[in-house]
Amino acid sequence: MQSPTKTGFTGIVRPAYGAKTMLKEKFVEIYESFFKGNDPSVGQPNFWSELFLLKVNATYLTKCLTEISQDKLLAIKNNIGKLFLKSIEAMKEENTQRKINAMETLCVLLQGIFSKRFNNFSFEVINLLTGLNNADKVFPQLVDAIKYLMKHGETIDVQHEALRLAIVIVCGNTNINQNSLNEYFIKNDIFDSLIEIIVSPKTSHMAYEAIMLLDILANYNKHESRNPYLTKLIDIKYEVVFEKIMNVLSSTCIKCQSQYIEIQEDDESNKYLISTVVSYVGSILPWYGSGTKQHSNVSDPELAFVRLPSANIAILLAFYDMVNNNKRFVDYITKSIARFSIPSRPQFNDNPTTETENNIKSTETGRDGPYFCDFLSLSSYLLQHNRTNRTASYANLILLTLVILSEDASFNEVICENERQFAVRLCRQRPPLLQNAKFPRPIVGVILDIVIGFINHNLRRKLQTDLYSMALGIIHRTLSYLKKNRVRLPYHWAELWHSLIGLLKFILSNIEHFQQDRASVNEVLLSAINIINLSITCGDTFFPDPFSYDNFFYEIVRAKETFEGLNRIVNKTNFIKPESPTKSTFQKPASPSSQFDVLSNINTICNHFHLKIEAWKLNNRARTITPEQVSVYSIISTNYDTLELVTPEKLDHYTPYSEIRHHGPLLRQVLRVIVEDFKKRDIC
Known about the structure:
Blueprint: E1 12-13, E2 22-23, H1 26-35, H2 47-51, H3 58-67, H4 70-75, H5 77-90, H6 96-114, H7 121-129, H8 135-152, H9 156-170, H10 183-187, H11 191-199, H12 207-218, H13 228-235, H14 239-263, H15 268-284, H16 301-306, H17 315-325, H18 327-338, H19 355-362, H20 371-384, H21 389-406, H22 409-416, H23 443-457, H24 465-485, H25 493-509, H26 518-538, H27 546-558, H28 560-573, H29 600-619, H30 627-632, H31 659-678
Main location: membrane
Protein name: Armadillo-like helical domain-containing protein
InterPro entries: ARM-type_fold (IPR016024), ARMD3-like (IPR039868), ARMH3_C (IPR013636)
């Protein structure tokens, strides 16, 4: 190869007298000249052809771009523009290695440029790369080349590098809505290319990135203008696509969950096994047991937990968007749960007409397992270790996804069926611990446990009221379905009452801290009380037996002091009047009139049964009384006849979820966290 510069680089740096000669890598030599403002291509007709045959030294090029200032970058604008344009041209050549090297060069170059702090991101980036006048000519060529190579690249490496380049561009600004380069992907969408990567067995290692890129593009200005990715995402109907998404979600959740377990093993059976092995080996080798950690694999578990989950958890955005936008996807999840215990599997009814559809149709699908359970398992760990703004973003996605699913009648029907039972591992790393329900059970019980776990482990003075409203909204929707369809659910209901009353007690004891957040805390209080009211008036439709009702009423009586405190707030400040405005409603405590006192029935129960219990204690000379005694002596069950309650209507009604109406601004913030994490991903 000839020297690439006019002055004739030798590839040798002349050392000081007596020092050893040091060879300089050709790639380094060329880019050193570039960044000094020289143009080594002048007078070298084969320069670019030969440059893209050189192995890209990404480390050196990244270093150059990191160290150069924005002013100096603008000073060598012509060199940057030429390198950008020539790289695009090389992507269209026949030589495979030139294509790959050109795309890798573009990835590093663009990442370096995007990392600079521009006052006007899109304007300055476009001005640097192409100039404003040439942007509409050059960038469509780049998107065309990416689109073609993703779909028709001659090797997997070419396809993967094209996908990677698209990701770098689309995620160039963490706020994707302020990256006008994405407009070129809107005008010439790469949807079909991404779908083929997702479903093809040959590119299965690229499915995670393809799913994420598709979903991020579907979120670009989706409420401001027509987005072709969102439109097509809504219309996806092929089960093989759904299964691939669930497969990627499942594997990601399993990996993320394992990182929590590596910090602290919370499976009692595993702890017992480890303890037994340690004891046995220790009896033979006394030194073995010393220093062995059975409960934690790290020196500072709390610090380790704060760093989790890994960046790959960004896939939760794609799952949320599919659940929120594609009813067929929800139906697929429902069917996959239903057919878990059914030997035969229904065949596809699709009638593909395009080339892409034919490729989709011909792709074999993998196992049909309960991928949804892996999502639920990871959710319990994340929700119990929700300590940062970052984890709060993912908690939002998890809870919103469950809110949407809990509004779907078919989904609810399947997860409540006693014939379809699943053993799902839930987090037990923080007290208080729920009952260790490792036995198979309907998924509805798992979901309730996850939500209760969130309520119990996130009680802080800076209460995440938006998350609590979602969590309570899930419970309310679930009970509303059970009530409407008269589904009697075997469940440890006492855990729910302890959780709800504990939440009310916490808010009551910290009421002075919530005055500035009155509206949102008001919503949380109303939601929790509404669930209790719904259970009081309609519990006979979903409690499995009379004892559950007795126990529920007794828990209300035990919390008499808490409800008296809430009464004082109502009478003194109107803190929880139903008509108080709220900023985002998941459930409204509907009643025959807005004058219905939401604590009326609770007060009646407390007063009525408190007197009966005190009378029993007096007659039996008992100073205290236990829940077991209440059941044995039927104090609750024998005194229902004289209990007079109000029967308000519409307690099971709720406002259906709407992203635009309730959570548009919130999800835009979440999206920024997702994009930032996606750029840090470790899945390739």
